[in-house]
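=== Structure Prediction Worksheet ===
Name of assembly: unnamed complex
Input type: mixed (protein and possibly other molecules)
Chain count: two
Listed entries:
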Amino acid sequence: AQKITQTQPGMFVQEKEAVTLDCTYDTSDPSYGLFWYKQPSSGEMIFLIYQGSYDQQNATEGRYSLNFQKARKSANLVISASQLGDSAMYFCAMREQGGSEKLVFGKGTKLTVNP
Amino acid sequence: EADIYQTPRYLVIGTGKKITLECSQTMGHDKMYWYQQDPGMELHLIHYSYGVNSTEKGDLSSESTVSRIRTEHFPLTLESARPSHTSQYLCASSAKYGTEGGDTQYFGPGTRLTVL
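=== Predicted Assembly ===
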């Protein structure tokens, strides 16, 4: 069964607007971590933001914030004030503490920022 | 900022050749990982290591092998490359869980391998 689901293969947003990228996850482990990575066309994976399952507040890092809804098992990434350089693939990933602490990735969302 | 390096960045090679993809990190991280990613697709873990002399196979079956003789170095070897091995290979590392930022995996720039 797929543990990380990203239902949006592609998203478009106008420059300077906010965009939400969806991510839902499935786990029975009470302790887990959720990550978002950005992958530009050059191929490297850039860490953006992390949310622990016991964190009380939603994580924020600059223009990135994570809308963490534990009961719904969702961890959506919000990018505020989109920039042209935000155009990339975005991957949601989960690390389960009870396992071997490996990361499981979703299929990704391709974000295109239009001028 | 993470200091993890991969060489070569791009490699085009003929079928049957032996290749080694290099991965090094200067952060002293105990854990290192190799992922395989086809274009536009998700990453799949093929190997990981929790420290020197520790290697494990990942979720995706792979004909490659790895070694971890030094903390900073985690090379991946294909004894006989085939066209089905054409893919991007990404190396990552992370600190021990419980240390600051220990959960986070930092990635190298990747190696794009093409086997003709």
